[in-house]
Amino acid sequence: MELQITATSPEHPASLLDLPWNVPLEEWPEEHLVALDRGISRHVVRFARAGGEIVAVKEVGEWAAVREYGLLRDLDRLAVPAVDALAVVTGRTDEHGEPLEPALITRHLAGSQPYRSMFQTTMRPSTIRRLLDALAVLLVRLHLAGFAWGDCSLSNTLFRRDAGAYAAYLVDAETGQIQPRLTSGQREYDVEVARVNIAGELMDLEASGSLHPSVDPVLFGQAIVERYCDLWHELTRQSVYPLAQRHAIDQRVRRLNDLGFDVAEMQIERSPDGDNVTFLPKVVDAGHHQRQLLRLTGLDAEENQARSLLNDLETWMATQDDYAPGDPLGARPEVLAHRWVRDVFRPTVRAVPKELRGATDTAQIYYELLEHRWLLSERTGRDVGLDATVEDYIRTVLTHRPNG
Ligand SMILES: Nc1ncnc2c1ncn2[C@@H]1O[C@H](COP(=O)(O)OP(=O)(O)O)[C@@H](O)[C@H]1O
Ligand SMILES: [Mg+2]
Asked: Ranges for the DUF4032 domain (predicted)?
């Protein structure tokens, strides 16, 4: 048998080859390992250094490794928060030529913690609620994407702090399956598994004395069901609004924002008689715009800036001759985005003299210009364009701003 590393990205196999694949994972020498907190698992899991990265290595049968690898890649494609699968290693043998178990390699999720580490200092009930909220959001997102988890639990989730809230990531996809659409029976089953698992995990914490005395494991397990149902309803409800009541749509968007969802685009259809609109929100999780902008343009901006810049980019894209979304002959979004950075974003920012920009970064300047354009356009009742905006912004705003 020959060692084989199957990976989608070419830069990883090289650095992964340096790991001691001829030694059982439990016996790997310290020099390769990274001591970070891990959750409870059935398989042997270790964190190791590979190239400049920290990877999680899990020893698991070949069939399961390949399957989980594929599922994690699918989740990535569906933009659901989960750990990144990097490779599957097969054909391992020890120094005597005896076969060793294959391994699934994922990228260590930076800044994440397993729930047991988070509970080491007793968590306040309100914090536990936020943690469970994040898990409910993850479960809804998985279900919207057609993923039935089969084993939703705190142990199979990683949590990352996200500006006062928590973001949950799927770490263990072994029991999952993807299909175009889940039945309500499949969703109910998943939620029931989550309820039972979470109640059990909280009871374990209670037994070891690390649960706040006022937290009832059973009630908190039940809370995930309620939270899930509220979210699912709010997200999938298609409603018809009288055209005259556009603010009803705004209210719904705000409610979704309050639930922690960001509405990226909305499917709004006018009825044939033109009196009603049908509204189905399309939601994304926090940080969506930031990631999207970074991927398309390389610009690293805050979420609100990114949302505004992406809006501008998308509107501009639609004016391009080779813009044809979904058509393989059309320009790829990355290509159009590159053109936008070169022909629109950079020239516009450069039109603002450097000494006036001060320490303000380019994304923020462009964002302010977009806001200013909106103000001017509202005032004059037509789109004033970027050139006029820059001129007016320099004259009426920037020259009066203390430099910094
Ligand atoms: N990519 C990763 N980043 C951070 N932690 C990870 C990663 N992969 C695994 N872990 C840790 O290892 C634990 C066990 O992984 P898991 O895939 O659930 O194994 P098992 O299939 O044996 O249950 C997780 O709870 C998590 O704490
Ligand atoms: Mg697990």
From this structure: 231-398
